[in-house]
């Protein structure tokens, strides 16, 4: 019996080490707010007064479509809309001769191939007792893949004009003025 238990323990030990080795650790500063966090939130958020949440969510989805995004996910009850827009990428590295890349890298070097701009929008009531006052927060993220289908870059879009244009179009679409918070 003792040998049997020892055999089971020895058989399961590599599996346990594999599972423990794959556990992702959270970076130490993952939840630390940066000095620009407040500015980013102000850039990404607007208050809409005089409109119900379902109408605003429908307006958000319409604006995304008008801007060329595909609506990937939508949960009206939660006020969530996620969309993405794919574009091809042309870089200086791609314009160089493929033969040069192969000679220098010992084979075809991966280059940027495709980028996706992902928009995540959350619509929520400003307060429970004010059903026609909504807060809308949008974040844009740029994700770039290379020719090996590996993600090579993932970053937040922080261009104020992108956010201004989105909220301007949303205000016009729902005929309600957006106000900074």
What percentage of the residues does DSSP assign to strands (E)? 25-35%
CATH architecture: 2-Layer Sandwich
Number of domains: 1
CATH class bucket = Alpha Beta
Distance between the termini: 69 Å
Mean pLDDT reading = 80
**What structural class is derived from the secondary structure elements?**
alpha+beta
Number of helices: 6
Q: Report on the biggest sheet.
A: 7 strands, antiparallel
Rg (CA only)? 24 Å
CATH topology: Alpha-D-Glucose-1,6-Bisphosphate, Chain A, domain 4
**H/E series:** HHEHEEHHEEEHE
- Count the E strands: 7
- Rough outline: globular
Helical residues, percent? 25-40%
Q: Stretches where pLDDT falls below 50 for ≥5 residues?
A: 91-104
Question: Descriptors for this entry?
Answer:
7-stranded antiparallel beta sheet; 6 helices; alpha+beta; 34% strand; globular; single chain; Alpha-D-Glucose-1,6-Bisphosphate, Chain A, domain 4; 181 residues; 7 strands
């Amino acid at each position: 019996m003792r040998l049997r238990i020892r055999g089971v323990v020895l058989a399961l030990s590599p599996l346990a080490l594999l599972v423990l080795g794959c556990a992702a650790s959270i970076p130490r500063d993952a939840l630390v707010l940066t000095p620009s966090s407040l500015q980013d939130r102000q850039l990404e958020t607007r208050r809409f007064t005089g409109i119900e949440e379902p109408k605003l969510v429908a307006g958000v989805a319409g604006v995304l479509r008008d801007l060329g995004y595909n609506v990937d996910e939508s949960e009206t009850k939660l006020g969530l809309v996620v969309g993405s827009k794919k574009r091809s990428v042309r870089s200086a590295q791609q314009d160089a001769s493929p033969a040069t890349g192969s000679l220098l890298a010992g084979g075809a070097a991966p280059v940027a191939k495709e980028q996706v701009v992902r928009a995540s929008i959350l619509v929520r009531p400003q307060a429970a007792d004010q059903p026609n006052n909504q807060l809308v927060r949008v974040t844009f993220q740029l994700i770039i893949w290379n020719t090996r289908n590996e993600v090579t870059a993932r970053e937040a879009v922080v261009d104020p004009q992108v956010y201004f244009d989105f909220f301007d179009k949303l205000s016009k679409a729902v005929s309600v003025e957006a106000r900074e918070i």
